[in-house]
Each structure stands twice: as structure tokens, then as C-alpha cells.
């Protein structure tokens, strides 16, 4: 016989659910309103989150926190400077070469088609199709040229973007410097009976983000290096550019591996159909290794999202924030999942406040 539980059927529980929904809608509305000025603050928080463990480690060894932050900033700055000096010119040069190479690529596709048609005793490619391929090649060349100019304009020409990149490290410095004080202020406004639950929530969010962000960056780097190495072995041109594209797109689940393989497959056709086929096989093997060996070891199951949720998060992030939204859609969904799971347990399961561990 089912017992009547007045606690579970209390109107107060419905009030709490209503308050939660209204608060969530209000928070989303606030984000939409202030979205134009959010970029430097989001970059600062991401920067502080990624650097906090190393800064805390140096501070524990007796180094002044401000000095530790400046030291970490200097190390990161040296790495970024080295990448800019050595990698960016190479990638730009490869991009310009690729734009000039598009007509050769179109000619290679035509030659490959003619080769296989003659092998099977068919007529050569019809003039209409040949003209269409040539026109598509010219259109692709124009689009690539326009796209490269657009990227350069976005990086160097937009004042808000440049200001965000300049302001974010400054904001991140103050976040890192006052991180202990921020933690103390947060604990000061959290009721003692709730500190155990809030601590568990923060721990779960940190575990999800830590596993995804740091792990995914490492996996993307490995995939980029392997992709560049494989295309170089096959003699496919623009191997560094292909590796960079594979690394950048790999951080986008499901969509990234396909987008990273397409340039290698198309450029492989300029060598021979067999080179293109070997490129396909190589990328399949690389991403199988990523899915079965590298990612489980590095990233683990920290996110734990259903594939449908991941795909929805990617499209929603892209619709809201463009390319940056594609990158943060999945980790944002992982954080939202953790928060909603904790709220659900808090609202549906009676909690003995006295038994909850407190964090001082």
C-alpha cells in the first residue's frame, strides 16, 4: 500500500520548482541582453580556470601569488609567441599556396575521372561536366581567397575582438590573484547547511570541465600531429595546413573529424585515386584510435552526455555564438547537466541538513 507523503506532495515543492524555472529563464534572458560585452569576461574566466592549478601549485611552494601569475603568463606568452613566429607564417603561406593550387586540384579531378572512364571503356568526361568542374574550381578559389581575407580582417581589424583579447588577460590576472578571497566570499554567502551540497556541485563541475577542456585540447593536438604526419608520408601537399585544420576541427565532436579529412581526400586526388583512398584509410584509423584509445584515456567519461544531446549542444552553440559557440556548446551542456542533476536531487529528495557535510 502506497503511503501518503505530505512532504513530497507539499505545495512548497511546486513553488520551489516554479522559482527554479523562473530563475533559469531570467538568467538566460540576462545572458542574451549582455551578450555583446560577455566575450572578455568569458575569456578571462576560461584563462583563469586553465591557469589556476599551476598558479596554486607555485603559490604552495612559497612563491608570491602575483609573481606566480606573472610567471605563468610569461610561459604562456612565450609559447604563443613561438607559435605566432613559427607556425602562423607557415599556415598563411600554405593557405595562399592552396588558393593558387585550386585550378590544379580541379584538373586533377578531371584527369582522375577520365582515367577511370577509359579503363572501363567509357567515353571521356562530357564537356558540360568538365566546364562545371572548372567553374566550381574558380568559385572555390574565390571563396577561399575571400575567406582568408575575412579571417585576417576578423583577427586584426575588429576593434572589439582585439580589445577583448587585450582585456581578458588583465581580468584573468585579478581573478587569479583574488581567487582565495573569491572562494571565501562565496562560502560566506552560502548557508552552512548547504555548503556540503555546493562543494559537491563545484567538485562535479570542475571534474567535468577539467576532463573535457584539458583532455580535448591534448587529443586535438595528437590528432593534428598524426594527420599532418600521415599526409606528409603520402606525399599530399599542404601537410602542415591539413594537420592544423584537423586539430582545430577535432574539438568539434562528430563534425570535426569529417571536416578535417575532406581537404586531405581532395588533395590526394591530385596525386592518384589510390593516394586519396589511403588518406581515407589513414584518417579512419586515426579517429578510431582517438575514439577507442586516446580519448578514453585522456578525456574519460567525464562529460557523460547522450550523443543526441551533444549534437543539439553543437548546433545550439553554433547558432548562439558562431564558431566559439561550437567549441563551448558541449562543455556548457555538461555543466548544465551537472547543475540540473544536483537541483533535481535537492528538490525531489528530502535532505537532512544536519547530515550534510559542511566545508569551512
TrEMBL record:
GO terms for biological process: transmembrane transport. It is found in: Cell membrane. It holds the Pfam family AI-2E_transport. It comes from the Bacteria. The chain crosses the membrane at residues 14-32, 38-59, 66-88, 151-176, 217-239, 251-270, 277-296, 308-336. The keyword Membrane applies. GO terms for cellular component: plasma membrane. It is a multi-pass membrane protein. Keywords: Cell membrane, Membrane, Transmembrane, Transmembrane helix, Transport. Belongs to the autoinducer-2 exporter (AI-2E) (TC 2.A.86) family. This is AI-2E family transporter. The lineage of its organism: Bacteria, Bacillati, Bacillota, Clostridia, Eubacteriales.
Amino acid at each position: 500500500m502506497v503511503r501518503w507523503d505530505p512532504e513530497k506532495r507539499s505545495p512548497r515543492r511546486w513553488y520551489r520548482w516554479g522559482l527554479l524555472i523562473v530563475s533559469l529563464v531570467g538568467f538566460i534572458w540576462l545572458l542574451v541582453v549582455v551578450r555583446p560585452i560577455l566575450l572578455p569576461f568569458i575569456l578571462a574566466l576560461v584563462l583563469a580556470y586553465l591557469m589556476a592549478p599551476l598558479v596554486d601549485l607555485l603559490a604552495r611552494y612559497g612563491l608570491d601569488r602575483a609573481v606566480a601569475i606573472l610567471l605563468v603568463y610569461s610561459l604562456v606568452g612565450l609559447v604563443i609567441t613561438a607559435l605566432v613566429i613559427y607556425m602562423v607564417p607557415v599556415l598563411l603561406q600554405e593557405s595562399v599556396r592552396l588558393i593558387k593550387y585550386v585550378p590544379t586540384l580541379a584538373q586533377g579531378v578531371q584527369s582522375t575521372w577520365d582515367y577511370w572512364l577509359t579503363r572501363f571503356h567509357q567515353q571521356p568526361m562530357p564537356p558540360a561536366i568538365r566546364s562545371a568542374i572548372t567553374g566550381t574550381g574558380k568559385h572555390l578559389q574565390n571563396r577561399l581567397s575571400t575567406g582568408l581575407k575575412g579571417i585576417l580582417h576578423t583577427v586584426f581589424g575588429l576593434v572589439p575582438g582585439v580589445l577583448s583579447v587585450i582585456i581578458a588577460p588583465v581580468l584573468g590576472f585579478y581573478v587569479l590573484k583574488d581567487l582565495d578571497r573569491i572562494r571565501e566570499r562565496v562560502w560566506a554567502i552560502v548557508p552552512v547547511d548547504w555548503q556540503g551540497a555546493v562543494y559537491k556541485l563545484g567538485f562535479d563541475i570542475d571534474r567535468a570541465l577539467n576532463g573535457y577542456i584539458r583532455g580535448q585540447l591534448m587529443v586535438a593536438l595528437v590528432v593534428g600531429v598524426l594527420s599532418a604526419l600521415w599526409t606528409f608520408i603520402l606525399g599530399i601537399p599542404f601537410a602542415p595546413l591539413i594537420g592544423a585544420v584537423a586539430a582545430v576541427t577535432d574539438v568539434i565532436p562528430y563534425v570535426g573529424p569529417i571536416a578535417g579529412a575532406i581537404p586531405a581526400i581532395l588533395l590526394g586526388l591530385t596525386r592518384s585515386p589510390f593516394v586519396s583512398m589511403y588518406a581515407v584509410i589513414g584518417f579512419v584509423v586515426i579517429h578510431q584510435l582517438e575514439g577507442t584509445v586516446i580519448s578514453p584515456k585522456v578525456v574519460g567519461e567525464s562529460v557523460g552526455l547522450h550523443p543526441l544531446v551533444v549534437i543539439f549542444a553543437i548546433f545550439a552553440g553554433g547558432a548562439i555564438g558562431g564558431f566559439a559557440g561550437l567549441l563551448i556548446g558541449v562543455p556548457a551542456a555538461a555543466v548544465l547537466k551537472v547543475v540540473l542533476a544536483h537541483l533535481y536531487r535537492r528538490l525531489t529528495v528530502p535532505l537532512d541538513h544536519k547530515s550534510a557535510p559542511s566545508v569551512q
